[in-house]
Amino acid sequence: MYAFSSCTSITQFVLGESIQYIPERAFEDTNIDSLTLRATVPPELDRRGLWHLSEDISIVVPCGTLEAYQNAEGWSDFSNIQEANPYSFSVSSEDEAIGEAWVSKEATCEDMSVEAVAIPSEGCAFLYWEAEGEQVSSENPYSFILEQDTRLVAHFSGTGVAERESVCVIYPNPAHDQLHLQYSPDVQPRHIELYDLQGRLVRTQHTGLESIDMSQLPTGTYTMRVALEDGKVFSDKVVKE
Q1: Fold held by 166-240
Q2: Taking the alpha carbons of 204, 210, 216, 219 in that order, is the dihedral positive or negative?
């Protein structure tokens, strides 16, 4: 009956897809402000199973089940029920000194795919994504359908500025109009991407890889990512003045 009662330190609860019944006073004396349900059929409530919760508490239900919850006995008393992908998605870096990673696209009910992006630090290279201790992809950005709780860890390698300079020389930096790249003879670039400080992709270039037109970009600092034909990725900070 008192399944979660007195759990005052927890404000967000996630109930699994197998939940069919919530007993009376299950959440008594909690400070819950968000409840996520993964059950596609609204669980039965024993009289006032959620009796003490505010009617406008955030309740998240699986995509395609909003109407069922809004019409279900007990659940219909709540005014803030929303549909969403009920699975969590987070991204981190194995070592922020050699690279950063973040979520670049969240899942929605209209599009269940998510995307993560990794940006190596100067002189370093992205290697692969890890989940649950296993390598899952070497794509970057990495997109997939979110079907379970997923935590990605980005792995990088690199030996510093000297490694980057063995790939190409960038000039002028800061740049006003054109940023030029002079590659080493054995380097074959495949494409270039520019990301702003919020991790948003602002430019992709597949041809003319010896220069980048910066004239239409806002003033600021960007991460330039150069993907090579051998699968390696190198990056550097560039500044538009």
Answers
A1: Immunoglobulin-like (2.60.40)
A2: positive
Give the whole-angstrom CA distance, residue 219 versus residue 206: 23
The separation between the first and the last C-alpha atoms of the chain, rounded to the nearest angstrom, is 64
Mean pLDDT (10-residue bins), the chain, 241 residues: 51 85 74 86 74 80 94 89 90 85 90 92 82 90 93 78 65 92 89 80 90 92 83 80 91
How many CA atoms does the CB half-sphere of 2 hold within 13 Å? 6
DSSP string over 13-59: EEE-TT--EE-TTTTTT----EEEE--SSPPEE-SSTTTTS-TT-EE
User: What predicted TM-score, i.e. pTM, was given to this entire model?
Assistant: 0.55
> In this structure, what DSSP letter does residue 121 have?
P
> How do the domains of the chain map onto residue ranges?
12-83, 89-158, 166-240
Does domain 12-83 fall under CATH 3.40.1190.20? My reply is no
